[in-house]
């Protein structure tokens, strides 16, 4: 890998780091909004969630590209490692989404019982 590619790769990874910080800020803001005594402002939560999801997608794409560019050779062409790991990651993502939906359902039920 030549120095110029290393530099641009490093810059892309630094941008990913900044996006991760922003994702954490957004998540924190949404949690603060949900904890607000006056209740969450729907539009603000929706905007933060949309930005959160877009940043996650951007991070994922950039990291995937960086990993692919770092692996310039393929010693095992018929290896199923990548698809297997990809499936495992998808399963973990689904588990996480299901857990988050369950938490949201629980929170909504809590609001309905207190109202």
TrEMBL record:
GO MF, any single term: transcription coregulator activity
Pfam families (alphabetical): Med11
A Gene Ontology biological process term: regulation of transcription by RNA polymerase II
Keyword annotations of the record: Activator, Nucleus, Transcription, Transcription regulation
Subcellular location, record wording: Nucleus
InterPro entries: Mediator_Med11
Coiled coil: none
Assigned GO CC terms: mediator complex
Reported function: Component of the Mediator complex, a coactivator involved in the regulated transcription of nearly all RNA polymerase II-dependent genes. Mediator functions as a bridge to convey information from gene-specific regulatory proteins to the basal RNA polymerase II transcription machinery. Mediator is recruited to promoters by direct interactions with regulatory proteins and serves as a scaffold for the assembly of a functional pre-initiation complex with RNA polymerase II and the general transcription factors.
Quaternary structure, from the entry: Component of the Mediator complex.
Sequence similarity: Belongs to the Mediator complex subunit 11 family.
Protein name: Mediator of RNA polymerase II transcription subunit 11
Organism from which the protein derives: Coffea canephora (Robusta coffee)
Protein encoded by which gene: MED11
